[in-house]
Amino acid sequence: PLPYAYNALEPTIDEETMRLHHDAHHAAYVNNLNAAVEKHSELFSKSPEDLIRDLQSLPEDIRTVVRNNGGGHVNHTMFWEIMGPNGGGQPTGALAEALNRTFGGFDQFKQQLSQAAITQFGSGWGWLSMRLDGTLIVENTLNQDSPLTEGRYPIMGIDVWEHAYYLKYRNRRPEYVNAWWNVANWDAIAKRYEQARKGR
Ligand code: MN3
Q1: pLDDT tens readout for residues 98-147
Q2: What's the CA-to-centroid distance between 101 and ligand 1, angstroms?
Q3: Residue 26, SS3?
Q4: Is the torsion defined by CA of 173, 174, 175, 176 positive or negative?
Q5: How many of the other CB atoms lie within 10 Å of CB of 167?
Q6: Is the confidence at residue 200, as pLDDT, over 90?
Q7: What spacing in Å lies between the alpha carbon of 149 and ligand 1's midpoint?
Q8: What is the pTM for the complete model shown?
Q9: Can you give the pLDDT at residue 199?
Q10: How far is CA 75 from CA 15, 29, 36, 97, 161, in A?
Q11: Rounded CA gap, 38 and 69, in Å?
Q12: pLDDT value, residue 138
């Protein structure tokens, strides 16, 4: 279940988009991932994150399905978590300091991540990720590819598939991305940053 009501992110993200996005798109990724893994009981003990961290170790017949649908599940689980009805504003504490250090300030960081999301050609995501050495990077990925597969940890990501915004924003992706910051849940994002630092 979503951690809040379907209409909780209005007016930034409309209720109908949330229902379709969570109940149809995310659910399909979960069902497809389960169906793929069902044939390989040796994978039952692995978490979805483990599966997409090491795609090369997967049986070849399900590798692409897990890449797309395992990525889809992990990416969306994060996406619901890092948004919230009382979102917006700016991070504080260690995350804010790291953003200042890396990008020169919150506004510069916001600008870079927005650009990465807006300019992703076709379907994909814009990310703030942590490298293995603990430093931060803004990047984007195609389709449901995850920074986890590249050995990085996704601190936050903006979904720029058309299903994330087309009902309300139509083809105006920049408008959606600029509005998205109003629902950013900085407590949840800071928690992911702390977990990533501890698990480095
Ligand atoms: Mn999506």
Answers
A1: 999 999 999 999 999 999 999 999 999 999 999 999 999 999 999 999 99
A2: 31
A3: helix
A4: positive
A5: 16
A6: no
A7: 18
A8: 0.97
A9: 84
A10: 20, 10, 18, 25, 12
A11: 14
A12: 98
Spacing, Cα 79 to ligand 1 middle (Å): 8
pLDDT tens, residue by residue, 53-104: 999 999 999 999 999 999 999 999 999 999 999 999 999 999 999 999 999 9
Distance CA 45, CA 58 (A): 13
Distance 67 CA to ligand 1 centre (A): 15
The Å distance, Cα 155 to ligand 1 centre, comes to: 17
Q: How many A from CA of 28 to the centre of ligand 1? A: 11
Q: How far is the CA of 60 from the centre of ligand 1 (A)?
A: 25
User: 144 C-alpha vs ligand 1 centroid, how far in Å?
Assistant: 8
**Ligand 1 centroid – CA 166 distance (Å):** 11
Angle between helices 93-103 and 186-198 (to 10 degrees): 80
Residue 83's beta-bridge partner residues?
184
Which amino acid is located at 102 in the chain?
T
What's the pLDDT score for residue 80?
Answer: 98
CB-CB contact of 168 with 14 (8 Å): yes
